[in-house]
Amino acid sequence: MIYLDIITPEKLLFAGEIKIVKLPGTLGSFEIMENHAPMISTLAKGKIKVKDANGVISNFEISTGLVEVSNNEIKVLVESAVY
């Protein structure tokens, strides 16, 4: 499994184990699954789609942000988001 945090300056929006996350990259959307290579990317306005460890799907509308992936941990920092 992968562990994901989605954080705004105001609060922690999501924290937990996931199966997959789809992110709106500035050069196009992309997905991250278990054992993804380490990376850092910028995010554009769009939707983050998370499928958690139980198969529950959550969507977050974001403005802009950054994502860092390392050792099956994903940190998503966004300016603002709507759940």
In short:
The chain has 83 residues and is an all-beta fold.
Notable characteristics:
about 0% helix, mainly beta, ATP Synthase, domain 1, nine-stranded mixed sheet, about 80 residues
What can you see in these coordinates?
- By secondary structure, this protein is mostly beta strands.
- The chain has one domain: ATP Synthase, domain 1 (Sandwich), CATH 2.60.15.
- It contains no helices and nine strands.
- It has strands at 2-7, 12-25, 28-33, 39-43, 46-52, 57-62, 65-70, 73-78, 81-82.
- Strands 1, 2, 3, 4, 5, 6, 7, 8 and 9 form a nine-stranded mixed sheet that branches.
- It starts with a strand and ends with a strand.
Structural domains: how many = 1
Number of helices: 0
Please write the CATH class name. Mainly Beta
Beta-strand percentage range = over 45%
The string of secondary-structure elements, in order, is EEEEEEEEE
Shape: globular
The number of strands is 9
Average residue pLDDT: 95
Radius of gyration: 11 Å
| CATH architecture annotation name | Sandwich
Distance between the termini: 23 Å
List the helices and strands and how they pair.
Elements: E1 2-7, E2 12-25, E3 28-33, E4 39-43, E5 46-52, E6 57-62, E7 65-70, E8 73-78, E9 81-82
Parallel strand pairs: 1-8
Antiparallel strand pairs: 1-2, 2-3, 2-5, 4-7, 5-6, 6-9, 7-8
